[in-house]
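Q: Here's a chain of 205 amino acids. Please give me its 3D structure as tokens.
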Amino acid sequence: MKSVKTLFLALALGAVSVACSGDKKKGVDYNQFKTEVQLTPDQVKSFDEITKKYQDLQEQNFQAAKAQGGNMDRVALGIKGEELRAQQSLEMAKVLDAPQMEKFNTFVDENSRKRPRYDNALLERIKTEGQLSEDEFKVVNAANDAFEKAFNDAHDVYHGNNDLAKEYWVKFDTQRKAAIQKALTPEHFTKFEEIVKDVQFKGRK
């Protein structure tokens, strides 16, 4: 079995790295949510305060990452974004009732930028349903991390062009699967492919 480090490097070499020339962000439009769910005036006030607080924090994180110079660490930025959304959800649960919260979480999930990787729930399925050994699962994780880094590092090349972004996504996904195939038994890889068969590139709206 190839080492995790070797597989990681093989994927990382596929990445394209260029200087960032600007990045227009499109955040979640929380005003849209307020047109879809009936809120009381008090709820609207708290809703606006909470969403503004976390939009400001998200902007601070983005500016801090941008100020580092060179290639922005989009993986770290994505992780911080996930953490902020989780904190915002906890705070919002004190304002909205249960049905409203369910709609809010669905709305945020559908409209926020996701990290381009197998998420933790899918990784757990790959490990348990695929009955992977610890060594096999380490390779899956390493290949998944390398895929995310490679796709993020190429961001400035495909930015604003969904067709080109899809080309890069497919290229790095092929490399991810090839790295995993070399580490898994044929039976485990067949199960792995079955579990991830619905994972496709999703362009930005």
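Q: Can you summarize the key feature?
A: Confidence is low (pLDDT under 50) at residues 15-24.
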